[in-house]
Amino acid sequence: AIHSHLNCLGLSCDDIGTASGIVQYPACSDNFDIVGYAPVNPKSTNVVARLDLDAVAINQMIQLEKYDIATNIYLEGHNYYDYDKEDIGFVSLRDMTQSATIGYNSFPQYELYSSYFREKGIGNDPSPGEFAHQIFMDATSPDGRFATATTEERRSVVEITLASFVSYFSALEALYYASFVCPTNKDSATAAYDGGVAFLVGSVEGTERGGNSEQEGRFFYNVAKLACIYFDTCVEGNDAEINHMMLEKLTVGQVALKSSNCDGVSEAIDSFAALTVVPLMQSLLSFADVIDNEPDGYAASMAIAPVIYDVDDHFADKIVSDMAYDITSPDKKIEVYNAIETILSDEDFEDIACNVISSLCDEGESGGFDIPAEDPTPIRPEELTPISGGLYVATSYTGDKSAIALDVKEIEERLQVKDVDRAKFIYEEGMNSKIYDDNGMPTSEERSIQDFSLKSGRVMLRDPTYNLFVTGLSDEYKEFLGRPVEDYADSYVSNLLYSASPIAGDAMVAINIWMEVTHSLHSAYEACKSSVLSEDRSIVGRKLVEPRVAARFIDEAAAYWIGDGQATGSSSRGHLLYALTEIISEEYGEDSSSQSTINTRIIDLLQQAKNHIAISRSCTTSTDSHLKLRSIIDEIVPLMAVPLLRALLHAMKQDDAEKVKLYAIAVLPLFAKCNPSTYSELKNDLIDNTLLSTEKNYVYSRIISLYDCLGLECDLIGKSIGEDFAYECEDGSNMKSLAGYRYAAEEDVVSSAAKIDIEIRLLEIYMNNGLEHFPDDVESLFGLAYEQYRFGNGSLHGEGSLSRLAKDVRRDIVPSFPQFRRYFKSDENYADKLIVDAFEEGGIFNKATADYRKRVILFTSKYMVTHMAILQKLYSAVKYCQDGDVVEGVTNLDIAAAYYTGSFEGTEDGGTFDGSLNFFLARRMCIYFDTCSQSNNALINERMISLFYSAQGELDTKACVPLERTVKQIDNALLVPLIQGTLFACWQNSYYFNNKILIPSTKEFLPEGYVLAQSILPIIANVDIDAANEIKSVMVDDFLSPTRTGSNHAVVFAAFKRALAKMDGVDCKQIGSIGGQGFCPGDADPTSSSTRLALSSIAILMAVVGLPLIMF
Fold first, then answer.
1. Cα–chain-centroid distance for residue 704?
2. Is the Cβ–Cβ distance between 673 and 765 less than 8 Å?
3. How do residues 751-802 score in pLDDT, each as one tens digit?
4. Distance between CA atoms of 54 and 44, rounded to whole angstroms?
5. What is the C-alpha to C-alpha distance for residues 490 and 53, in angstroms, rounded to an integer?
6. Chain segment 309-332, per-residue pLDDT in tens
7. CB-side exposure of 684: number of CA atoms within 13 Å?
8. How far apart are CA 704 and CA 718, in angstroms?
9. How far apart are CA 445 and CA 735, in angstroms?
10. Which has the higher per-residue pLDDT, 616 or 827?
11. 3-class SS at 613?
């Protein structure tokens, strides 16, 4: 084997010699053949053949991105030294593109190609050599026609060009020159003829017939070898049959030359030249199979375009157009096959059998190329699929999904030339993303981007992210842009297409496809959780092995995020969300030469998700292993929002109203679970209306205020280059304030706990969507809410979920907890049972409406669960103080404050009107009970904040006894809004049943009263069992059949008045009065006529002037 490569190094056996005493190795014998062809002048011919080593070196240098070195080798030459012409010295590949070596161009192919290039106006010097030179220089230059090409694309186009132009024409030139001088100078003819073979094959292929099967050559001979593998036309040794045929003709010509038969030489060369069209055909065909055009495909088309043009100019022009770099043509494969068939029918090529080109042809038939309508090969679901050259390697087949990128690319190109009809057709019908049947065979259908939206109401029904968008974009008519909100993506994109907007393609990526990525992620979780896919969760057209279903959905998410045609870290080579992320990252100052931080993190998390699925055997190793996958997905989705937020802020900076609306629709609905008024304001400014430039800074501040709700930070979003917003981004969580209470514990701990109201808001969103948007699937959406209740989103500072909070075993530390356990008949999980029964229609709820069940679930979560959770943290703070652990004491105290206020109240003193927990309840009740302060906050809230500060100071000084007294005061103060809420619900229900005919808009609060009463009844029962029973009989027992409620509010009021007098630490004056009724001894009797008149008059007055009584 070593002997066979000596010639490549310019050595012979004599140069090496033989070591004495060594007999076990075969004797060295010089072999100067070129793939079995024996040159007459072997040594000089093999020197010429070494020119291909320059091509090898160039290939290696381009792979290393050493373009300057590659160019130097091309221009100067490093391996072929012309000893016969000392004035020339090293001969380079660049020399071979000119007429400097032999200087002969009077042969048919040169004239044909030069004429074609001249007619098409290609290059200043219309010749094949100059065309090849320009291709090479563009491929190794940062500014040429391939400026956006990847390193691999540059390497490949150089390889094709050197083989199909430089090697090819150098060989033809030498051979035809040999024929030309044959009659007058046999020696020169022989040298030229052998040199032609050397230029055709090179040295890397070796000496044996068929070439080197372990190494790829870099000259024309290798074009056919590569093609034979692709087209299944290889013969022994993986060589191409056409190569054997060409060498046979060249050998015939050599024999003729040796005998001075110059006519035979000419005939053999013409026959050989006709055969050389076959590798060029095969090369073109192989690139026509690739949907996304790359530079090498363009070079391959130009290598044969003049031949096709000579036969049929229409086909030639169409092929060159279809194969142009960075263009996608759905019909090019058919065009190329038709062109090849036309060539084979021409008399100049009629002796070429079609089956030499491809195994698709009928055996031995000339012409008659069979054009397959579709590749019948089925997909293999378990097939490894590198996406965009290995940017992400899917462990299942995802080529059909990643091909959706080619639809986007084609749509954008159609819109650029105002071909709206074609763009609309591709959007609606699809073009490149094939759908496969149950056996993995391609169907006649394609997946379309429009389908992602139109099918969303069915397949995304249980997707948390999709539900946020339905809620966030819905108007009062449950519509978006005049159509059902469930189809929001198609409504917006179709409007853009109708108006021929150039940003329609951007909208498809940011809205339709972005949501499809989240759908794949949520589907992975559903599959992992249940291990059995429902009908709506199946992968279209595949038989699946269950344990691998979840992993396939992760692969699909990656396919839709990255897409075909994407280069790592490239903002110019790609069409989907990965590319969008790279583009906008550069606007935010990230290095354009490397992959963006966000893409790196997302791909890493996708791999983490896949690894977890594999390790947990598709979430079957434990009952909660699916929760780890859920946490990874919950981390991915906010990261996916970052490029959209960046694009929105960048569009605001640019005053680009169209893109502001696009990216607002694409990302703002994620904040629908956050502060309600802030989201509503942003929706009004950026989605429903056009942003005014004078409002930008304010809008920017509102967007920033919601970052923490998604777990995002200012540093992660960053600041775009040249950003001129006056408002400086500052994370809300860094302010360490809850409705004005300055907490001392760690920011992330308290911020996480405060997001308990977001957890409850999600329950509300899912259940409301079932009631309002998907009435036929109410229970499915209740099921999604139930899952949220059980598992949560990782907030609540380690508690995990509302369910865990409701069943916390540490509640025994609360002095009043035994009273609750006793009242609820030893059921210490009383709140959880209430919620679970409401979800599952158990117990009393088997007759309740879905709306009643929803309201019970929400009120129990807001007030009953949080009440005991606050107390547990408060009394734990006392215990930690007694144990000397001040840090944990402060942490528990501040978490209690977080559970009391929630995150919606914001950071400012007094909070907002967006809250939903006890702080908000107190603030709303103070309006009706005349217990508001001058700053319009509830007096009890101000007392609570003051008590929290006292407790903070007592912890700081380790004054544990005073701390215990303060905590007891907070405990008592917590009862005030609960009592007020119960009384108000009873008061409102009484009004409702007495006036619903007179005033139809009157609301009832039966479910709310049912929950609020039970949140306080254990305390009342502990001091006055009769009062508790009276309240229960009205507020609880008559929950679903309120026949007596309308006349019994007085019973409830009187019972509370008696009980309050017996409740130590609860000041009846803090309760206030409602409808003229107070609850302290000596206040007016609730049965008096003056009280009834006041109640009726206030209610009717408020209804007449249009003031809302309350929205709990």
1. 23
2. yes
3. 999 999 999 999 999 999 999 999 999 999 999 999 999 998 755 555 678 9
4. 17
5. 56
6. 888 888 788 888 878 876 666 566
7. 8
8. 11
9. 55
10. 827
11. helix
Residue reference for tokens 């590569």: 226
Which token pair is 656? 């680009």
Q: Contact, 876 vs 884, CB < 8 A?
A: no
Q: Identify whether the C-beta of residue 285 lies closer than 8 Å to the C-beta of residue 311.
A: no
**DSSP percent split of the chain into helix, strand, coil, nearest 5:** 65, 5, 35
Residue type, 729: C
> Residue 1071 in contact with residue 1060, Cβ under 8 Å?
yes
Closest CA to 172 of 206, 116, 129, 211: 129
3-class DSSP state for residue 1024? coil
> What residues pair up with 245 in beta bridges, in sequence order?
none
CB 30 within 8 Å of CB 72: no
Strands 442-446 and 434-436: antiparallel
Report the pLDDT averaged over residues 1069-1096. Answer: 71
Using DSSP's 3-state secondary structure scheme, residue 116 falls into helix
Report how far residue 1077's alpha carbon sits from residue 840's, in angstroms, rounded to the nearest whole number: 39
Alpha-carbon span 438 to 454, nearest angstrom: 23
Q: Which residue has the tokens 């084997």?
A: 1
Which amino acid type is present at position 445?
E
Distance CA(199)–CA(100), nearest Å, equals 15
Q: Between β-strands 385-387 and 239-240, what pairing exists: parallel, antiparallel or unpaired?
A: unpaired
Kindly list the distances between the CA atom of residue 1024 and the CA atoms of 931, 1018, 1030, in Å, as whole numbers in the listed order. Answer: 26, 10, 10
Residue in 662, 678, 679 with CA at minimum distance from that of residue 670: 679
Residue 509 sits at the vertex; the CA angle it makes with 507 and 511, to the nearest 5 degrees, is: 60
d(CA 489, CA 508): 8
Q: Which of 1020, 1010, 1043 is nearest to 1112 (CA)?
A: 1010
**Length of the chain in terms of residues written:** 1112
DSSP state, residue 735: G
* Residue 1105, pLDDT above cutoff 50: no
Give yes or no for residue 188 having a pLDDT over 70: yes
927 vs 658: CA distance, rounded Å: 43
Euclidean distance between CA atoms 405 and 276, whole angstroms: 36
Find tokens 């105002």 and name the residue: 418
- Angle (CA) 915-919-923 rounded to 5° is 85
CA–CA dist 568, 573 (Å, integer):
9
What would the two tokens of residue 121 be? 């106006």
**SS3 for 262?**
helix
Report which of 349, 45, 299 is spatially closest to residue 171, judged by C-alpha positions. Answer: 45
Structure tokens at 851: 């709306």
What pTM does this model have?
Answer: 0.69
Helix (H, G, I), strand (E, B) or coil at 308: helix
How would DSSP label each residue in 355-414? Answer: HHH-TTSPTT-BS-----SS--PPP-TT--EEETTTTEEESS--HHHHTHHHHHHHHHHH
Residues paired with residue 385 on neighbouring β-strands, in sequence order: 394
The alpha carbon dihedral of 439, 445, 447, 453 has a sign of negative
Output the six-digit token pair for 952: 């903070």
> What gap in Å lies between CA 1014 and CA 1032, rounded to an integer?
8
Alpha-carbon distance of 616 to 628, in angstroms, equals: 10
pLDDT band at 24 (very low <50, low <70, confident <90, very high): very low
- Establish how many alpha carbons lie within 13 A of residue 443's alpha carbon, considering only the half-sphere containing its beta carbon: 12
Task: State how far the Cα of 834 lies from the Cα of 841, in Å rounded to an integer.
Answer: 10
Beta bridge partners of 90: 81
- CA 695 – CA 700 distance, rounded (Å): 9
Phi/psi of residue 1085, each to 5°? -70, 130
Task: Give me the residues paired with residue 1077 across strands.
Answer: 1074
| Nearest Cα to Cα of residue 864 among 853, 856, 876 | 856
For residue 1044, give the DSSP letter.
S
